[in-house]
Specification:
This protein is mainly α. It has helices spanning 2-16, 44-47, 69-73, 114-117, 120-127, 133-136, 149-156, 232-238, 286-296, 298-301, 317-320, 332-343, 345-349, 354-361, 371-384, 386-390, 395-402; strands at 105-107, 139-140, 143-144, 179-181. β2 (139-140) and β3 (143-144) form a beta hairpin. The radius of gyration is 38 Å and the shape is elongated.
Length: 412
């Protein structure tokens, strides 16, 4: 009895307890990564004394006092790989890691809202000018670099004294504690190439605005809802002869890809082409000859013609229901479609399903004439072409009448 009561209590406690949330996986321990948690008692400006990386001034301030001076005076160890790529006996020859560090997870991630910083009226009242993309993303070597502390200090310095805005001395105003996976990854990678320097102005000299490509930046409040530009935003400019020269069109794969080569049969994806773009082999005669191409390589057709009628298996319906095949003349239904179907039913199945045929063949054919007279006249038609009868009637249907005793139904 006591065990049963104890079981009931455990069940009730488990039912009333709040649902547990699955926490994000903790990043693996990396001895070569600086641990900000172990340095939490040290003020941020104790290490970050300037815009340069800590330790750039002959290892200062990391070797000051009782911090890491002993490790710097000792032999090279794994501690050196916090800043250097490899450990060598000659410190001057040891290459440095990238700063800030680029790896799958981010320590002390920053908080930033594009929506707040791109509000023209808000920024005009706060700092006296409109903040544009180029104010923070300074161009360097053709790329828009990520803003650093020096960029932010132009507005967030102590001298600016912005009300309700974090100052550069308040690190916690922008940097959260802990670690998280990086929300943004490199979009231009592998064989892709892109240069912001070439996208300052178009062919006519008209400036290209940042929001022409980054259309959602003005509505983004966090890094998570700030997606990269979509390919569709490139099509409008790259396929406009007035704005972009022909060698830079979206059809030319080498415009962005280093290892791709365009050809007559290699089609660009649908999002790379404007709505009016057609492959080079889609000539005036292609409408007549496309059946052979579609039967040979239907996957190529599906590059552009996908789910036109809502059904992936009937992607050609929208055209073929309006533009019938050439042999579907006015007499095709009454005279010609029977022999054609008997010769090649698979051709009919390209467009018509079984229900389409049964919907018509379930009705009385016109060749059957009046019901009162066809019973006496159908024998002549059956002797001429009995196969026409078996299209709809099985042998049992005929035996129902012809096997009856003579004279019961007036049949021979």
């Amino acid at each position: 009895m006591i065990r049963q009561l104890w079981f009931v209590v455990v069940v009730l406690v488990a039912a009333c307890s709040p649902a547990r949330r699955s926490d994000a996986p903790v990043p693996p321990v990396d001895p070569t990564r600086l641990d900000h948690q172990r340095h939490a008692l040290i003020p941020c400006d104790g290490c970050h004394r300037s815009s340069a990386r800590p330790g750039a001034d002959d290892h200062r301030p990391c070797d000051d006092g009782a911090c890491h001076k002993a490790k710097f005076l000792g032999p090279p160890s794994l501690f050196c790989q916090v800043c250097h790529k490899t450990v060598t006996t000659t410190p001057l020859a040891a290459p440095l890691k990238q700063y800030p560090v680029e790896d799958p997870w981010q320590s002390l991630p920053p908080v930033f809202s594009h929506r707040r910083h791109m509000d023209a009226d808000r920024m005009e009242k706060r700092v006296g000018f409109h903040v544009s993309c180029a104010d923070c993303h300074a161009r360097s070597d053709g790329m828009l670099v990520r803003p650093d502390h020096a960029t932010c200090s132009r507005c967030h310095a102590v001298e600016a004294a912005l009300a309700k805005a974090p100052s550069m001395e308040s690190c916690a105003g922008c940097h959260q504690g802990g670690a998280r996976p990086r929300a943004r990854v490199r979009v231009i990678q592998n064989d892709l190439q892109f240069h912001h320097e070439r996208h300052r102005i178009d062919r006519k000299g008209v400036p290209i605005k940042c929001e022409d490509c980054h259309r959602q930046s003005g509505r983004s409040s966090t890094y998570a809802d700030h997606p990269a530009p979509r390919i569709e935003s490139c099509v409008g400019c790259h396929d406009d002869a007035h704005r972009t020269p022909y060698p830079m069109r979206m059809r030319i794969c080498e415009t962005c890809h280093l290892e791709r080569r365009s050809s007559l049969t290699a089609l660009a994806p649908r999002n790379h082409l404007p709505a009016t773009e057609r492959p080079l082999d889609h000539t005036l005669a292609f409408r007549r000859d496309h059946a052979e191409v579609a039967a040979r390589n239907s996957a190529r057709c599906a590059t552009c013609h996908t789910q036109m009628s809502g059904n992936p298996q009937q992607a050609c319906d929208e055209c073929h229901q309006r533009m019938l095949p050439a042999d579907h003349r006015i007499t095709f239904r009454e005279l010609d479609h029977g022999p054609e179907a008997a010769a090649d039913r698979t051709r009919c199945a390209t467009c018509h399903v079984v229900e389409f045929c049964t919907a018509c063949h379930a009705q009385r054919p016109r060749s059957h004439g009046f019901a009162s007279t066809f019973v006496r006249e159908h024998g002549r038609l059956a002797r001429l072409n009995v196969r026409a009868c078996t299209t709809c009637h099985l042998e049992d249907f005929c035996q129902g009448c012809h096997a009856a005793p003579a004279g019961r139904r007036g049949l021979p």
